[in-house]
Design goal:
This protein has about 240 residues and is of the alpha/beta class. It contains nine helices and nine strands. Strand 8 and strand 9 form a beta hairpin.
Length: about 240
């Protein structure tokens, strides 16, 4: 595939074999983001797990958010409807919302939360929500009685992460329009959350390699030992 001169010029800024200190890597990420729109800052963590036997999945509230407005749909009834609405949920309801998704293909939302008693209804939407990564789950805290707290966290910048079949966690940690300090703090928070999800019985190095990039930019290898040490110091 032919690359543009702009892309090739940004690639030239990155030394392929070099492992960059965390702050230098973030500075370089911003320099290699040359699109006319704020690109997403993305991280990839290669984990020392067997994905066929072990799963790593969780959530993280980024201190400075994602840079994106998140539309939250909540399946609830009774008092929980009022709690979700007060917390800022964009859509709250039950059967009527499920019907709209099933019959109209309505998907104008980014995250879905449900109370446990609504899961039989939500389960009917699995074939639609599941492939899009929208299915609520107890493992990510999106099936809960405390809908208000989860809605507030989602609005504030809570993200989900999950290791793929190759044992790699891909996750966004902000926008390239963020300051270097904001990206740095978001990346540390994400790293800490992944460390906290280390499965029991994992032998050897859990986090083996970390790289970051902007949407349109080249990958930048981060010193994972420094990153892990910094993240471990967070409270």
């Amino acid at each position: 595939m032919k690359r543009s001169k702009r892309y090739l010029s940004t690639v030239a800024l990155v030394e392929k074999e070099r492992v960059y200190p965390v702050r230098e890597a973030i500075s370089l990420l911003k320099r290699t983001a040359t699109a006319k729109f704020p690109e997403t800052a993305e991280a990839a963590f290669k984990l020392g797990i067997n994905p066929s036997q072990t799963q790593v999945r969780g959530t993280c509230v980024l201190p400075h958010g994602t840079g994106k407005t998140v539309r939250v749909l909540v399946f609830a009834k009774g008092e929980k409807i009022r709690e979700a609405e007060a917390a800022g949920a964009d859509y709250v309801g039950g059967e009527e919302l499920a019907e709209k998704i099933l019959k109209e293909g309505w998907l104008e939302f980014d995250r879905v939360v449900a109370t446990p008693d609504m899961m039989p209804l939500v389960g009917k939407l699995g074939k639609i929500l599941g492939p899009r990564g929208l299915m609520p789950s107890p493992k990510t805290g999106t099936v809960t009685q405390d809908v208000a707290q989860v809605v507030r966290e989602l609005k504030a910048g809570m993200i989900e992460f999950r290791a793929d079949r190759y044992g790699i966690v891909h996750a966004a940690f902000g926008k390239t329009s963020f300051t270097e300090d904001q990206l740095y703090e978001n990346l540390l928070a994400l790293t800490k959350a992944i460390l906290e999800r280390k499965p029991e019985g994992v032998r050897g190095r859990y986090v083996q390699r970390v790289s970051i990039s902007s949407t349109m930019g080249p990958g930048i290898r981060v010193d994972e030992r420094e990153l892990l040490s910094l993240a471990a110091q967070l409270r």
